[in-house]
């Protein structure tokens, strides 16, 4: 993939975001910003509001309060701009089981004004050999590769991956991590929602911790280690820092 012009400066800005579903306050106050070509991790316990946040960024949900700007526009107002420039990892399980890998990519490519080259993309994600395989017969790792390809098919500037490595074996996670690194190396801004601290440690420049609908921390992993007071790292160091941080904010 060759990319003509990538954005610079702040590409995602989220300020005071709030969103409720009937009586459930999913988000109360979420604030962070992401710079061009950063890999930005979003962590937090189950139900913390991570997916709701990235759906507001992708423009698939409209917040009740607060402001989101993506590539200079409001994603809920300017769906067309954001849809073409922000790749959102589709929950692959939603694809019909008989749809073949290449067919799925060509189908989705047709929605975009300047789609990626499908054979190129198949090679990039390592599904070239499996392009005729029906979706229902792919392994978990192959489905995640297809998810990545579908998020990239519109040639986005920003890509959002939500729990991409969940459920994969260690080899599968390593492969998917390499692929995410490749995406970042192309200059694409990566937003990674994950429960894995080592994904963040290996891939992300900065991270946000969201808990109970509020951002509790934004910074680098080194800053998280420093503010949690759990030391300077070592095996499990980041996990200890994260857990200490969550316990501390829950107690507050
Ligand atoms: N469409 C919806 N209708 C009702 N409640 C919702 C809806 N989507 C999310 N919620 C609720 O909002 C809260 C935040 O959910 P969200 O999916 O954003 O959390 P998450 O941090 O992504 O969780 P997980 O790590 O478990 O995926 C939860 O209490 C969830 O039950």
The low-pLDDT segments are: none
- Going by helix content, strand content and strand pairing, the class is alpha/beta
Mean pLDDT: 89
- Total helices: the number is 9
The portion of residues forming beta strands comes to 15-25%
Q: Write out the strand line-up for the largest beta sheet, numbering strands in chain order.
A: 5-6-7-3-8-9
Identify the bound ligands: adenosine-5'-triphosphate
Q: State the end-to-end CA separation.
A: 48 Å
Cα radius of gyration in angstroms: 18 Å
CATH class assignment of the largest domain: Alpha Beta
CATH superfamily of the largest domain: P-loop containing nucleotide triphosphate hydrolases
Domain count, please report it.
Answer: 2
SSE layout:
Layout: E1 10-21, E2 24-35, E3 39-43, H1 50-58, E4 65-70, H2 79-85, E5 86-88, H3 101-109, H4 118-124, H5 140-152, E6 158-162, H6 170-185, E7 189-193, H7 197-203, E8 206-211, E9 214-219, H8 221-228, H9 237-251
Parallel strand pairs: 3-7, 3-8, 5-6, 6-7
Antiparallel strand pairs: 1-2, 1-4, 8-9
Helix pairs in contact: 5-6, 8-9
The protein binds adenosine-5'-triphosphate.
Adenosine-5'-triphosphate is lined by residues 21, 24, 26, 44, 46-52.
Describe the protein in words:
- The protein is of the alpha/beta class and 252 residues long.
- It folds into 2 domains: 10-219, P-loop containing nucleotide triphosphate hydrolases (Rossmann fold, 3-Layer(aba) Sandwich); 223-252, no CATH class.
- The chain has helices at 50-58, 79-85, 101-109, 118-124, 140-152, 170-185, 197-203, 221-228, 237-251, and strands at 10-21, 24-35, 39-43, 65-70, 86-88, 158-162, 189-193, 206-211, 214-219.
- A 6-stranded mixed sheet has the order 5-6-7-3-8-9, sandwiched between helices. A 3-stranded antiparallel sheet has the order 2-1-4, with helices on one face.
- Helix 5 (140-152) runs parallel beside helix 6 (170-185) and helix 8 packs across helix 9.
- Adenosine-5'-triphosphate (ATP) binds next to strand 2 and helix 1.
